[in-house]
Every structure is written in C-alpha cells, then in structure tokens.
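Worked example

This section walks through a single chain of length 142. The input is the sequence exactly as stored; nothing has been trimmed or padded.
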Amino acid sequence: MSNQELVITPDPGAGVEGCWPGLLSAPLDEEQAIVLAKVFKALGDPVRLRLLSMIASRAGGEVCVCDLTPAFDLSQPTISHHLKLLREAGLIASERRGTWVYYRLLPETTDHLAGILTRPGGNPLPTTEAACGPADAAGADT
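Given that input, the structure is written out below as tokens.
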C-alpha cells in the first residue's frame, strides 16, 4: 500500500451539498468505489474499529498512542501498523510531539461515509418491481 493517505474528496457536482451521491441514490463510479473500498477495508478489522472508537470518543478530541497501546494484547508495532492503516484511509490524523504521537479523528471522512450510507431524505428503498420493471406477465398466469 502507498504511503499516501486516502482522502474522500466529494464531487462538487454531486448531491445537494456537494457530497458524493448516496449508495441508494446513484451508482458509484469506479474511482469512488476504489477509494471507499479502501476506507471500508480499514474499518473491517475489530482492532482498527476499537482504535477508531477510542480516538473518536476521547475527551479533547485526541489521544496519545501511549494511552491506546495498553488497551490491547498486541505489540506496539502492531498497534502502530493498525493506526497507519487508519491514517492512510483518511480516518485519523496524527501529530508527533516529542517522543509521542497523538491521534485525532477526521470527522469530515466519517461524515462523508455517513452521508454515503444514508437514504436521501429518509425515502424508502425502491421496490423490486420499480427497480427491475413489472413482473413478467407470462409468468403470472402459470
């Protein structure tokens, strides 16, 4: 994986507020799907989900790696690797202060994810008939 961080950049022409369209309002293009898959892959591990939750819920908005490591039965290099994957996915940012690294949530990324997964205006999902067309008339008689 590249050392570059992934950034979920909204398409200025899409959606009401310039965000990517929701999964239920328009199909993703290939580039959007690749970026989102990397973010969801980063979230697809229980350790990384716990780390993200610990960072996001911390009073003051940031947490030192020294406070994260003891919560796991994992080595410090393993925790650092998980944090690196979250950082590369654009979910967290880090700042070195002396010998310690402090992490904070990037809420713009989680807000975009929430928007992508939210139904537009709370509207119900399309019905199978509306999505696929009317039921086959010939099959209905048999």
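What to look for: The mean pLDDT is 78.
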